[in-house]
Design goal:
Elements lengths: L1 H7 L6 H10 L7 E2 H10 L6 H13 L3 E4 L7 E4 L7 E5 L5 E4 L2 H13 L10 E4 L11
Parallel strand pairs: 4-6
Antiparallel strand pairs: 1-3, 2-3, 4-5
Helix pairs in contact: 3-4
The structure holds zinc ion (3 copies).
């Protein structure tokens, strides 16, 4: 499946590309910061440098294999897939718990607002910064 993804995107199959794609699709979680991907590569004893991780992610982004979500102030976060499974995010600023959601009314509203200002909406990310309602059950970050 990973191989197919690369071929469809017109990218040559290289070890770093395969490994990073594999991590993104591993299913243990959906959202990865660049550093989390890098740490995972180290755990797997793959000799892929941080600069390569950045480069590969930029290539994947250009081919719509990943999308970038700004969930943290200081770090870009990536997830597999692209806008065809569009969703927005909520994140707990204390423990980092992430919830994905999609609300038709909000989506529609954004189109209307863009239109009102003479724009045609092409894409958007929405992130709601929250705190868990009943205290964080997640391990704190
Ligand atoms: Zn949305
Ligand atoms: Zn997501
Ligand atoms: Zn929390």
């Amino acid at each position: 499946m990973d191989l197919e993804n690369l071929k469809q995107a017109g990218l040559k199959i290289t070890v770093p590309r395969l490994k990073i794609l594999h991590i993104l699709h591993s299913g243990c979680k959906r959202h990865f910061t660049v550093d989390e991907i890098y740490q995972e590569l180290i755990k797997q004893k793959a000799s892929v440098g941080l600069a390569t991780v950045y480069r590969v992610l930029a290539q994947f982004e250009a081919c719509n294999l990943v999308s970038r979500v700004q969930l943290y102030n200081d770090q870009a976060t990536f997830e597999a897939g692209q806008d065809r499974d569009h969703h927005d995010h909520m994140i707990c600023i204390k423990c980092g718990k992430i919830v994905e959601f999609c609300d038709d009314i909000i989506e529609e509203r954004q189109e209307k607002i863009a239109k009102k200002y003479g724009f045609k909406l092409k894409k958007h990310h929405m992130v709601l910064f929250c705190k868990c309602q009943n205290g964080c059950k997640n391990k704190e970050k």
